[in-house]
Specification:
Layout: E1 4-9, E2 12-13, E3 17-18, E4 28-35, E5 38-45, E6 58-59, E7 70-74, E8 80-88, E9 91-98
Length: about 100
């Protein structure tokens, strides 16, 4: 899969990055670069973004309430991931790569 990017400056959610649920094994790596003053959490949903008006988002177990550069992964299937900025006027910029897709 080509790298996908999502970023958010100031509080609020970035755009959602969809994954391919049919890749086995399901492996997604991501990194978040924080610039300026920012507190952010990486979140995921199991809901289909195309058919669900208000998806339920869950915080990543280790990349939550961070203010520095972080990297992590998802080894289990999730439908999409995003960055939620909870404080600050800086930027949280995420790059995501899913294995197995050319």
């Amino acid at each position: 899969m080509k790298q996908q990017y999502a970023s958010k400056t100031g509080t609020g959610s970035s755009a959602s990055l969809a994954t391919d649920l049919y890749i086995s094994p399901f492996n997604v790596g991501f990194g978040v670069v924080a610039t300026g003053t920012v507190t952010y959490t990486v979140q995921h949903t199991f809901d289909n973004l195309a058919t669900t008006a208000s998806p339920v988002w869950f915080s990543h177990p280790t990349i939550a309430a961070k203010s520095d550069n972080q990297d992590g992964n998802y080894a289990f299937p999730v439908a999409a991931i995003k960055v939620l900025v909870t404080a600050g006027d800086g930027t949280a910029a995420m790059t995501m790569i899913q294995a197995g897709i050319a």
